Amino acid sequence: MARLRESRLRILVTGGAGFLGSHLIDRLLAEGHDVLCVDNLFTGSKQNIEHLNLHPRFEFMRHDVTFPLYVEVDEIYNLACPASPFHYQHDPVQTTKTSVHGAINMLGLAKRLRCRILQASTSEVYGDPAQHPQTESYWGNVNPIGPRSCYDEGKRCAETLFFDYHRQHDLQIKVARIFNTYGPRMHHADGRVVSNFVVQALKGDPLTIYGDGQQSRSFCYVDDLIDGLIRLMRSDDSVTGPVNLGNPEEFTIKELAEKIISRTGAASGLIRSPSPVDDPMQRRPDISLAGSLLGWRPEVRLDDGLDRTIAYFRSRMDEILAI
Ligand code: NAD
Ligand code: UDP
Ligand code: UDP
Asked: What is the pTM of this model?
């Protein structure tokens, strides 16, 4: 049974100026909480939170989580970390520092405040998975020294830290393993497949398929994901996770490209590019645990979510073309 937490809380969201963080903040403010957004604006932007500038219960602090942070809050969502391969490989050392030092600092903060802390972990902890679909008990197939390792191993070490603070310091932790999520406010140039394809289609450019396009992913619409994160944070004390959050409907990248061409009405074709190093071949979450523990499952179908995402990028095309 989920706890009833009706009181007004002061909630810290690290990475709050990013794609997921800004949607999470919208939801928390709408529920009546006070939100402190901490972000160094590496991949996030003030534009994602500019509609909150005058909100009386919202505060923004520009800060890098690899440095200590002394604030007073009741709950912490730790989302700070570049999330797309293009961005996290740009400065891989900083990516590992953000995951590991960032986790230590946020866990130290939670320990001092004796408050709950949720970690935005990732399906990348499963690497190029040998088990399909992936359950939380699968330990993964991860290259420790490749170009994706700064992110994958950084997030794995962060999970280790979360569980050690839980066992050693009795901290209340919640670990969400997030699978590919998409929607409005994705960075238009972060190289992720949905934003790349939608922007390419709206420009009338060919869509870039890496490899043969037979690799698969399962795409979760942002509103569903945020609902899962909030349910996990509010779950019983005994629930630590890790819990998979994602949409189990699986598509090949070629199918996704064809869908986006048809839904934008673009005249674009497809072009092939080489496959990135260590690109996982398939990925689909087993979400039985999220169903039984949180009563959660995604509601938004890919076609509907893509339509909302296309409408967002369409409304920003002039600005994107001018950059
Ligand atoms: P995003 O890049 O839009 O947001 C990340 C935010 O963290 C940005 O605003 C960025 O400026 C900030 N940030 C980065 N390094 C920081 C640092 N050192 N200090 C303070 N802020 C910092 O990405 P997103 O998609 O919103 O991802 C949010 C979280 O969810 C990340 O931790 C990511 O690993 C995780 N996640 C996302 C997905 C997805 O599909 N979107 C999947 C799995 C996991
Ligand atoms: N920390 C922080 N804010 C706090 C408390 C701690 O940023 O309110 C950081 C601090 O930099 C510390 C880290 O969290 O190094 C880990 O804290 P912990 O108490 O676990 O370890 P210690 O302080 O003993 O190194
Ligand atoms: N991808 C692609 N064309 C693009 C961008 C990505 O074919 O323009 C592929 C990529 O190789 C991967 C999948 O789409 O197989 C998802 O890539 P993304 O970077 O969005 O996420 P991740 O690899 O982290 O799941």
From this structure: 0.96
